[in-house]
Amino acid sequence: MIYKRSSALFAEAQKVIPGGVNSPVRAFKSVGGDPIFVKEAKGAYLYDEDGNQLIDYINSWGPMILGHAHEPVVNAVIEKAKKGTSFGMPTEIETEIAALAVSMVPNIDKIRFVNSGTEACMSAVRLARGFTKKEKIIKFAGCYHGHSDSFLIQAGSGAVTFGSPNSPGVTEGTAKDTLLAEYNNLQNVQEIVTANKNEIACIIIEPVAGNMGCIPPVKGFLEGLRTICDDNNILLIFDEVMTGFRLAAGGVQELLGIDADIVTFGKVIGGGLPVGAFAARNEIMNHLAPLGPVYQAGTLSGNPLAMSAGLAMLTELNNNPEIFVSLAEKTTYLHQGIKEALDRHDITHTINRIGSMISVHFSATAVTNFSTSAEGNNDTFKKFFHGLLENGIYIAPSAFETWFITDALTYDDLDKTIAAVDKVAATL
Ligand SMILES: *Cc1c(COP(=O)(O)O)cnc(C)c1O
C-alpha cells in the first residue's frame, strides 16, 4: 500500500504541532515509520488520505464500539448542534444521560461529567483524598489513568516507600504521594499499605488492565483489594475509562461482581466525543462542590453535543445487551484464528483476551503485569504491525496496547484479518 499523502501531511504537521500529533502514541515512535492520516471512517473501516481502506482494531482507542459514524450517534449530534453547541447552563440531556448511566452501572448514585478520562481520574483521586482526609494513593505499574501529575510515576528507589516522576515537570513532591504496586500482586499491595498505615486515601486500578496489553486480574486479586480497602478505610477506585460500557453494560463491577467506591469513565461513554465521568455512592459524591467542599468544575462539562453522542451510545447498549455477547464471540473467533495462524508458523506468542479486548504478545511467558508484558519481543511486534498494515489491517502502533473489537466487524473482516496474520507470520 502507498502512504504518500499521509507522509506529506505528517511533514507539514510537524512544523506546527510538536511531533506532528496531538497525543504521542499516534506518532508511531515505537514501531517506526510515519503515522497514517485518516480522511474518514465508516463502520469497521478507516479510509486514509491516500485512498486506502483499513480494517480498524483501534476504534479511536475504544469509543467506537458500534463502529465509526454510527447513525444514531451522528444523527443525535447533528440535531443537537442546530440548537446551539454550548451554554454554560444546565440542560435536560445531562440529567437523562446521568440517570441512564446510574441505572446501568452497579453501586453508584450520582455521576459528574467532565471532558476526558484524565480529568475523571484526576478528580476521582481528589474526591477520595477529600473524603478520607488522607493524602497518599496507590497505583499499579503499567496502569494508565491519564496524564495528570500524580499518575506519571515510576518506581522509586524504595518501591514500598514512594515513587519518582517519570516525566520532567512532575515534581518530587507530587511523586512522593503516589505509591507504586505490581499488578496482580496482592501481597505487594498489603506490604505497601502496612508500611503507610493510615496514610492512604485510595487505590486506583484498571480492574482489567488495557494499557500494558490486555491483562485480566488473576482470581482473587480484586476481591483481595476490596478487603484491604475495607480493613484500612481506603477507597477503591476502578478506572473503567476503557472497560466501562465495553466489557458489560455495568463494566467490570458487573462482569466480575466486585464493588468499587468510585468509578471513572471515558471513551465509550462519549460515543466518540470528548467525555469523561466519575461516579460513586451519595455518601462520597455529596462531598463534591457545590454540595460539598471538594472543588471540581468545567466550562464545557456536560456539553450538549457530547451528551447527545453519549446518550445515543449508552441507549443503544442498554437496549441491546446481546451486543456484549456478539462482541465476545467475535473476539473469541479472532483469538482462535490468530493463535492457529501463529502456531502454524511456530511463532512464540501469548494472547490475552477478555470480552472485546485482546492483545497479542510475542512472549513465551504468561503476561500478567507490566514486567512480563515488557518481556515481549518488540522487533517481532514491529514487523507484525507493519506487515498487517501492508495487508490493510490497522492495530495499535505499540506492543503495550489492547486491540478494541467493534461490533461493526463482520466474520468476513475477521477472516481477512486472520488470513493477513497467517501471511505475515510466514515472514516473522
Ligand atoms: C484512555 C484512558 C485514560 C485517559 O483518558 P483520556 O480521555 O485519554 O484522558 C484513563 N484511564 C484509562 C484506563 C484509559 O484507558
Summarize the entry for a quick read.
With about 425 residues, the protein is of the alpha/beta class. The chain has helices at about 5-15, 70-80, 90-105, 115-130, 170-175, 185-195, 220-230, 250-255, 280-285, 305-320, 320-345, 370-375, 380-390, 410-425, and strands spanning about 40, 45-50, 55, 110-115, 135-140, 155, 165, 180, 200-205, 235-240, 260-265, 275-280, 350-355, 355-360, 395, 405. The strands form 4 sheets. Strands 4-12-11-10-9-5-8 form a 7-stranded mixed beta sheet, sandwiched between helices. Strands 1-2-3-15 form a 4-stranded mixed beta sheet.
How would you describe this structure to a colleague?
There is one protein chain. The protein has 428 residues and is α/β, with parallel strands linked by helices. The protein is globular and about 55 Å long. Helix 8 links the parallel strand 10 (235-239) and strand 11. The model has no long low-confidence stretch (mean pLDDT 96). Strands 4-12-11-10-9-5-8 form a seven-stranded mixed sheet, with helices on both faces. Strands 1-2-3-15 form a four-stranded mixed sheet. A three-stranded antiparallel sheet has the order 13-14-16, with helices on one face. The protein has 14 helices and 16 strands. Bound molecules: pyridoxal-5'-phosphate (PLP). Pyridoxal-5'-phosphate (PLP) binds next to helix 4.
Topology:
Blueprint: H1 4-16, E1 38-42, E2 45-48, E3 53-56, H2 71-81, H3 92-104, E4 110-114, H4 117-132, E5 136-140, E6 153-154, E7 164-165, H5 172-175, E8 178-181, H6 186-195, E9 200-205, H7 221-232, E10 235-239, H8 251-256, E11 262-265, E12 276-280, H9 282-285, H10 304-319, H11 322-344, E13 350-354, E14 357-361, H12 370-374, H13 378-390, E15 393-394, E16 403-404, H14 411-425
Parallel strand pairs: 3-15, 5-8, 5-9, 9-10, 10-11
Antiparallel strand pairs: 1-2, 2-3, 4-12, 6-7, 11-12, 13-14, 14-16
